[in-house]
Structures are given as structure tokens and as C-alpha cells.
Amino acid sequence: MKKIAFSFKNVSFSHSNGKEALRNINISASAGESIAIIGSSGSGKTSFLNLIATSLRPSTGSIAVLNVDPWAISKGQLQRLRSQIGLVHQAAPIPLRQRVITAVLAGRLGRWPLWKSLLSLIYPVDIGGPQLCLQKLDLADRLFDRCDRLSGGQLQRVGVARVLYQKPQLLLADEPVSAMDPVLSDLTIQRLLEDAQSRDACFVASLHAVDIALRWFPRIIGLRDGEVFFDLPASEVSEKLLQQLYESERGVLPKQGSTNI
After folding, report:
1. What's the rounded Cα separation, in Å, for the pair 76 and 82?
2. How far, in Å, CA of 54 to CA of 74, rounded?
3. What is the domain range of residue 108?
4. Whether residues 52 and 16 fall in one domain
5. Is the pTM higher than 0.85?
6. Are residues 79 and 173 in the same domain?
7. 12-55: per-residue pLDDT in tens?
């Protein structure tokens, strides 16, 4: 039997201003699953991922992540849990004056002892590992460049390389290819899927581009107005369902490179 990667039970979440982002979510995923979260802007996709990542705490209901309730453990245990969760941000939170290799090495900081973490900021404690991760994303030639010399799409790939180097049990990605062209988008998603599958890790990505979601992910969750509108195999996601999911977009389904959303 597969281990549960995460589960939501009657979960709702409201922001500090009182605006409700998610309501009554009941959903779970197993180790080894690959899932795409789709829906219009404001549907709750980013909040959904941040709840799994334990960056946000549910307003109501309960969450288990890697078989642990993150809000019923000590700070030290929560830190160790978070070291097993990798999150690729749409805009990677990377200091622009930092070198690419240092940014990738940051993927292991949560697992290293303090002395090794501090040393890695001064001199790379590993070169081959980051280089291999960047090579998978066609970026190995920028290993020692400063991040402020990279384009937006290249910075996104550095963020992906950091999570590949981390090797988390739960791999999350929030619009990881929004600044990339279609060829690099497919390459990046493929590399993330390969990495997750090689370790039986769960991979969950929020995507605006429906075509990418349907092409690469066997399970699709559609969020609409903070609720699960559908949770289906990709083969069962019909054009009619998608039109209903995005009806506020006047029938225009978002695709790679679309500016409609």
C-alpha cells in the first residue's frame, strides 16, 4: 500500500484580511503520484500548495503531510519535516548577487549541520551535484555565474535545480515554467517528473497552461472559487469540464504562452 503524501480533511483557509481562499477541501495523495492543479487566477492554487508546504496553517480542518500533523509537533520536528518538502516558486526567491551554484546548494541547507551550511555560503561544498542538476535543465554552463545575469526563465530553472538537488519526498511547484518557452517548459516538467518518479516522491504542480497539465500529469485537480470542482484522471477531463472550470474566462482555455490569465 502506498504511503500518504498529504491529506486534507474539511480544510478551509482565509487570509488575514478575512478573504476566504479555500473552503471545505477533502483530498489526499499518495507517494509516487503526479498531480496538476489547474484553475483561474484567484481559484486558490497557490494557497493549496502553501498549505501542503506548511507555509500556511488551515483556518479550519486538519492536514497531514508525510503522515504527520505539522501543527501538532515541535519546532524542531517541523523544521525536519520541511526539509523533506521542496517548493519551486514561480519567482524563485534567490538573491540576485548570489552565484548559481550557491543558489542550488541552498536546497540542502535544511539537512546539513550548521557548519556545513555556513561554509557553503563562502565556498561550494559540492560542485558535481549542482552541476548535474543544472545539466539536466540545459543550464550547466551558468554554474558560476551570478544570478543577476540570468533571464527570468533561467532563474526559474535555477529554482528547479535547487529542488532537484534537495531530493524531497514531497515535490511542489507553483507555476514553475511560466517564464519559459514551450520547449524548455516540457523539458523542465519532464525532469521534475523523472526525479519524483525515481524516488517514489509525490509531485504536485499548479499550472495555468492546461495543455501542459493534460500532456504530462495523469491526475488533474480543478479548483474553482476555492473549491475542488473536479479531481479526475487526465483522460477524463473533457472540453466541457474545462469550459465550465474557466467560464469566467469567457471560454478561453489558458495554454502555454497565453496572456489571458
Report:
1. 10
2. 13
3. 92-167
4. yes
5. yes
6. yes
7. 999 999 999 999 999 999 999 999 999 999 999 999 999 999 99
